[in-house]
Amino acid sequence: MRTSKILTLVAALFTLLASASAADKIPAYSKADLTAADKLRERALADPSAYQLITSLTTEVGPRPAGSAGDKAAVAWALREMQRLGFANVRAMEVVVPHWVRGEAEFSVLSPWPQSMPTLALGGSVGTPPEGVEAEALMVKDLEALKALPSGAVKDRIVFFDNRMERTRDGSGYGRAVTVRVSGPSAAAALGAQGVVIRSIGTSDERFAHTGALRYVAEAPRIPAVAISNPDADALVRQFESGKSVRVRIRSSSRELAQANSANVIGEIAGTDRGSEIVILAAHLDSWDPGVGAIDDGAGVAIMMTVAKLINGLDQKPRRTIRVVLFANEEFGTSGSRAYVEGLHGEAERHVLGFEADFGAGPVWRLSSRVNPAQIPAVDQIFRALGPLKLERGNNEAGGGADLDGLARLGMPILDPGLDGTRYFDVHHTVNDTLAKVDPAALRQAVAAFSVSVWLGAQYPGGWERVATQKTSRR
Ligand SMILES: [Zn+2]
Fold first, then answer.
1. Inter-residue contact 53 to 81 (CB < 8 Å)
2. Which of 81, 182, 205, 299 gives the lowest tally of CB atoms within 10 Å of its CB?
């Protein structure tokens, strides 16, 4: 027994020594690469470019929903700005996009106590006849509550989904709440509803609604769907709490036009000895139309373009090619990223590492990843280089964003400098998504965190191996 204990101890010691020597073998960054990372961080913290880019995009282009004149203007803007910043291989990759037009919308409570409430059609919603759709309303919390209703309860009603989104730093509250917006209209229609009104999937207590895409299923009739603000949803709940029958009317002139042409706009900083490997920086060029898309996703566009500009300004060139892709139509069906993946023709594996910025204008608060477990020590090294920015160390379960979802499903590793989403959903998809909501200092910090991470991602002396597991995006 004594002998076996000693043997166990000896075996444990060997395991320890073996793992220590494995850690020694992890390829370490050169002094020059780490010095350049420090330089990038310092330059980013003093560089006004990202704020200038959001200012330019929101002033000179403004709202740019898929298929609109603003969408075309945004493509021209991005081509011009990438050329001005000195990127290589600047090009537009044509993408066919849906062209939905919002029109005007009205939401009114007719009884017990008549009131009109500011409203927005959900993206993709059909319109109503000019006189609107009028019905007795039915209040449910969410899809589960809808499904639990007795059969026939929903027929001919307008369904009010009352689920309130929870405020979180990592955006998980949105992921939990958003299914009502995406799937609620078809779920209600399948049970015979005439229309849907939802409590906005947002955290603001201001009196404006939050839009965003719905997704109709083929099996259910297409019914109109609108959103009202949190304070108006509270007021509507009080009408229901009276116990009296609540009648409401939805009016909307939303409609879908013929598909249109848009484009993914692409620019690169050419790599050197590992130049055939691509580190992709993703953001989306389109926006919803009530605001001007400053935080969603003007900020992401500006962060990625500024990161590439700063790396291009170093004396040293990146080893891997850094490719900025500003995707078309993320908001209403991710047309751009789907076209990008379809157009790869076996080149998917050249995309060795991905970054996405589609969660506001900063600051960055943690570093997460979804890399092959063999490269977690590399992420640890990058995290150490980010030290002065005082981030938290996240886990290896990052989802990336919607635009990199396709590449991530093909096994591309993701590095995720996490943007702080605490106040993001006060503004996202609302009329208040304007330049006034961008804090220049937080934005510069975000550019610094992305710059260091992207640079060291491109310089990693080892290889970024593929990721085995399949994960879906959180947004
Ligand atoms: Zn977005």
1. yes
2. 205
| Contact predicate 306/86, CB 8 Å | no
Percent of the chain at pLDDT above 90?
Answer: 90
Q: How many angstroms does the Cα of residue 428 sit away from the middle of ligand 1?
A: 8
- Cα angle vertex 349, ends 347, 350, to 5°? 70
Q: How far is CA 293 from CA 75, 330, 360, 400, in A?
A: 14, 12, 10, 20
CA of 453 to the centre of ligand 1 (A): 21
Of 454, 348, 436, 332, give the one whose Cα is nearest residue 66.
Answer: 332
Q: Among positive and negative, which fits the CA dihedral 84, 85, 90, 91?
A: negative
Q: Do residues 396 and 370 touch, judged by C-beta distance below 8 A? A: yes
Helices 49-60 and 440-459, packing angle to 10 deg: 110
- Mention every residue, 6+ apart, whose C-beta is less than 8 A from residue 288: 63, 65, 123, 211, 212, 296, 331, 429, 433
For residue 449, report the distance from its CA to the centre of ligand 1, in Å. 19
CA of 333 from ligand 1 middle (Å) equals 12
Enter the pTM of the model: 0.92
Please state, in angstroms and rounded to a whole number, the distance separating the CA atoms of residues 253 and 101.
8
Region 251-263: mean pLDDT is 98
The pLDDT-based confidence of 475 (bands split at 50, 70, 90) is: very low
Ligand 1 centroid distance, CA of 443 (Å): 16
pLDDT value at position 399? 82
Model pLDDT for residues 77-106, shown as the tens digit of each residue: 999 999 999 999 999 999 999 999 999 999
CA 296–ligand 1 middle distance (angstroms): 5
Judged against a pLDDT cut of 50, whether residue 20 lies above it is answered with: no
Å from CA of 234 to ligand 1 middle: 27
pLDDT at 19: 47
Give the distance, in angstroms, between the CA of residue 158 and the centroid of all CA atoms in the same chain: 30
CA 299 to centroid of ligand 1, rounded, Å: 9
